Amino acid sequence: MAAGVAAWLPFARAAAIGWMPVANLPMPVAPTNKNKRQDELIILNVSGRRFQTWRNTLDRYPDTLLGSSEKEFFFNEETREYFFDRDPDSFRSILNFYRTGKLHYPRYECISAYDEELAFFGIIPEIISDCCYEEYKDRKRENTERLMDDLEDNKDNKPPNMTCRETMWRAFENPHTSTMALVFYYVTGFFIAISVITNVVETVPCGSMPNQRDIPCGERYTEAFFCMDTACVMIFTVEYLMRLFAAPSRYRFMRSVMSIIDVVAILPYYIGLVMTNNEDVSGAFVTLRVFRVFRIFKFSRHSQGLRILGYTLKSCASELGFLLFSLTMAIIIFATVMFYAEKGSSSSKFTSIPASFWYTIVTMTTLGYGDMVPKTIAGKIFGSICSLSGVLVIALPVPVIVSNFSRIYHQNQRADKRRAQKVQKARLARMRISKAGSSTAFLHSKRNGLNQSLELTGSLEEDQQLKKTTSLLESQHHHLLHCLEKTTNHEFVDERLYEQGYLQTALQNFPSQSPSLSSEEGVTGTCCSRRTKKNIQALNATHTHSHTHNLQELSALHIHCGEQQPLNTSRSSLNLMSDESGSLNCKSSGLVTTAIISIPTPPSNNSRANPDAPPPPNPDAPPRPNTGSDVVKISAL
Amino acid sequence: MSSRRRRCKRQLIKFTQHIARLITGTLNSDNEDEEQESTTVRCHPENLEQLQLQTHFCRQELQLLYRGFKNECPSGVVNEDTFKNIYAVFFPLGDSSKYAQFLFNAFDKDKNGSLSFEELVCDLSVLLRGTTEEKLNWAFNLYDINKDGKITKEEMLDILKSIYDLMGKSIHPRLKEEAVRQHVRIFFQKMDINQDGVVTIDEFSDCCQKDENIMQSLKIFDNAV
Question: ipTM of this predicted complex?
Answer without folding.
Answer: 0.76
